[in-house]
Structure formats: structure tokens, C-alpha cells
Design goal:
InterPro entries: NAD(P)-bd_dom_sf, SDR, SDR_fam. It contains eight helices and seven strands. It has about 250 residues and is an alpha/beta fold. Helix 4 links the parallel strand 4 and strand 5.
């Protein structure tokens, strides 16, 4: 299936590894031109070399609204515009209500909410003017099923989901779609670090019986960025092997 992405210009945040890297790889495989960002120049250049193709590495920290805006602007300069925006960022520190001080919330909101707002502010108006655009946000399945030990992430990413849904309603008539993917446990370096390299215990708790393949996740990003997905907007799709137990 031709996804209609050949020549499209994509900016993928936090893509030096993990699910952002998988998203960039999938878009490149469909013929898109891709800008990626990360905070560490060496890791970013290594990721770009591994990806190959028409990829543009940009050092940027999307953990602040200013850094997020700067990444999109640099992507627009490098690519001549941005047709596809993939928002992504790491997670804030773990913690519960009791253990998390009030002043920790500000940086978490910057990382997982305000960075999304800033990237969309920088990219979406030009998409509206062209009459075509795609925003695909990588959030977390904890938006639907909060993790008791991740109160900062739960709070910030839920806010981002509300923002994205509202934005989708506003720009739908302009040919711009806005969707989010809610990943569960995937075989990333981050998950291996947290679990000491052993993912069997994680897989045992997932109805599918395995952790997710980042390449499969990347393929979903590419589909939501495609021409075929033009009637899909405002969705928040769990990608978790059935781990989330709710009806909605």
C-alpha cells in the first residue's frame, strides 16, 4: 500500500532512540524527508547514521516550550516546511501524590504537555494554510489507565490528550488531522533498563503474551500520517497488546 508520504516533510521529536526512532524509520521507509531531534549530539548523529536516507539531525531539548518551538522551526528551515509532526518526549520522574512536591509539577507539565502545545503552535498554522497536515502525538496508555507510581506523567499526558482532541476539532476542516498513540510496554532500551534487561515478566502481564515491537509502533505512526488516514482525527489509540482493561 502506498501511504502517499513520498516527499512529505516530517519532524519527529525525541527520535535518537526508542519509539521516536521507530517512527522516524517508518516515515523514511515511506519516502518522507525527516528531521529528528535529541539532546546529545553524539547519540543523535549515531541515530541519523543508522537511519540513513533523507534525515536531518537537530540538537534540541523539547522538555521546554522554547526548546520544542526551536525544534519545529529548525525542522522547517531544514526541510522547507513540516507536513507531519510527531510529538514525543521522555517521561518525568516517578512518584505518588504523597511523595511528589507541588513544585515538581511545573517541569513535568512543560515536558509532556506544554512541549506538545508549543510544537503544534509552531507547525499547525502552516499546515492549515496548505490544506494538509498530520499531527501524531506519542503519549502513554496511562492516559487511560493511570499508573499509581507515575502521577506526574499521568497528569501531564492526560492534559496533552485533552489539548490534542480540542485541536483536532478546530483544524479538521482545514485538512489537518490530529491523533495520539498511547503505547504500552515496548521493547525499547528504556524498558530494558527499568527491568534489568529481562522482559519476560513484563510480557507475562500482557494479554498478547509479548511486549510490543517498536517497528510495529512506527508503522502505526506512518499510517496515521498517510493519505489513507485522512478521515481519522481526534483519536487516542492504545497500542498495548490488550494491557489496558477498560472498555474505552
Amino acid at each position: 500500500m502506498d501511504l502517499g508520504l513520498s516527499g512529505r516533510r516530517a519532524a519527529v521529536a525525541a527520535a535518537s532512540n526508542g519509539l521516536g526512532f521507530a517512527a522516524a524509520r517508518a516515515l523514511l521507509a515511506e519516502g518522507a524527508r525527516v528531521a529528528i531531534c535529541g539532546r546529545d549530539r553524539d547519540r543523535l548523529d549515531a541515530a541519523a547514521a543508522k537511519l540513513g536516507g533523507d534525515v536531518h539531525p537537530i540538537v534540541a531539548d523539547v522538555g521546554t516550550p522554547e526548546g520544542a518551538t526551536a525544534f519545529v522551526q529548525a525542522s522547517q528551515d531544514a526541510l522547507g516546511g513540516v507536513d507531519v509532526l510527531v510529538t514525543n518526549a521522555g517521561g518525568p520522574p516517578p512518584g505518588t501524590f504523597a511523595s511528589t512536591p507541588v513544585d515538581a509539577y511545573g517541569s513535568a507539565l512543560d515536558l509532556n504537555l506544554m512541549s506538545v502545545v508549543a510544537m503544534c503552535k509552531a507547525a499547525v498554522p502552516a499546515m492549515q494554510e496548505r490544506g494538509w497536515g498530520r499531527v501524531v502525538a506519542i503519549t502513554s496508555v496511562t492516559v487511560r489507565q493511570p499508573n499509581p507510581a507515575l502521577i506526574l506523567s499521568n497528569t501531564a499526558r492526560a492534559g496533552a490528550t485533552g489539548f490534542l482532541k480540542t485541536l483536532a476539532l478546530e483544524v479538521a476542516r482545514d485538512g489537518v488531522t490530529v491523533n495520539s498513540l498511547l503505547p504500552g510496554s515496548h521493547a525499547t532500551d528504556r524498558l530494558r533498563q527499568v527491568r534489568g534487561g529481562d522482559l519476560e515478566q513484563v510480557a507475562a502481564a500482557i494479554p498478547a503474551g509479548r511486549v510490543g515491537d517498536p517497528a510495529d509502533f512506527g508503522a502505526l505512526v506512518a499510517f496515521l500520517a498517510s493519505d489513507q488516514a485522512k478521515f481519522v482525527t481526534g483519536s487516542a489509540l492504545a497500542v498495548d497488546g490488550g494491557e489496558h482493561g477498560g472498555l474505552l
